[in-house]
Amino acid sequence: MIDHTHDRAATSWVASANGHADFPLQNLPHGVFSRPGEAPRGGVAIGDKILDLAAVLAAGLLDGAAEAAAAPSLNGFLALGAGGRTALRHRLFAVLASAAPAAVQARAAACLVDAAECDLHVPATIGDYTDFFAGIHHAMNGGKLLRPDNPLMANYKYVPVAYHGRASSIRPSGTPVRRPNGQRKRPEEAAPSFGPCRNLDYEMEFGIWIGGGNALGEPVPIGQASAQIAGFCLLNDWSARDIQSWEYQPLGPFLAKSFQTSISPWIVTAEALAPFRIAQPPRPDGDPAPLPHLFDAADQAAGALDIAVEVHILTPLMRAAGLPPHRLSHANTSDLYWTVAQMLAHHTSNGCNLAPGDLFGSGTISAVAEGGWGSLQELTLAGRRELALPNGETRMFLADGDEITFRGRAARDGFATIGFGPCRGTVFSAP
Length: 431
Ligand code: CA
Prior knowledge:
8-stranded mixed sheet
């Protein structure tokens, strides 16, 4: 899967792409953008520009296969499969590389827009959204608070645990997040009350865009599951902890999660991430092997991803003082106990059908060490100790005006570093 489009030495005639932290020539993520007053349409991020694919098609620089990527919703692009995506990637690379003929560069340059002028949208119509729980250190941290002697449930190492989330409230990075109202009950209170969430939190997750999908009743075998995954993003599963702890038994999260989920709006393709595939870390001694329908040797050998992820906070006081955001944690997608192929194989193992544009969340990604814990629930031990910020402020949970930003970056010796662009949201007060 690694080819000339991953060559670190390749440069673009779009000057801002060269050395760009997220979007060098080797990334070429797809998204949906609009300029003020214009209709949303598909584009590709390159440096601090967006290549307007409808304009590129009109200029005759791409053929009909690119039409799905120029659309205002990228479900058709996601359905292309690895072959179609790779062919388009090769063509885009040829248009944007420094080696492109001068006439091609001139025609394509007229199809670039400044990303700073554009709004970015949720890039596909998301039919269904599923949130997994594959971050084992997050599961351990949460479990320890409830069951110190037995933090993981008996199913955890057999089942990629998940719940059905809410697709309608998924929003792109930058969309403000309204603190939800809900039923809350402190342990010492006899009855719940309805009002603003008191314990608002974030969850640092990895988003997985489904490509081909499967027919109802036809499971995707583990060996074919990876081919069904089209791309990736960052995902913030905003969580109302007090509402969650009151409502979740016995059926799991509901209103504590469904008020909003934020995603980074660029789809970083499976092809762009090919150099950053790694072996799934071996299970500790004593852990059970995955059941046969979740085990594939090739998936174990190269089905995990090496992507560094970070959480940053900017409070209103920090913003007013001109301070930079403060990094709360850093972890890696290799901290997940299940590969994305195992998640997909499990999801379809009962015959449940997935469709292009469905979205998975990985579950909160936490490292073993405290500096890598991916939620305030973990960092404050569920509100039992304050988190100190460098400017002297403290937090148990998020305050109105707090901005949370996730960043993700894939780096490997010999390859260009690529990133996801931010997944950001600022909390505002409950209605
Ligand atoms: Ca979650």
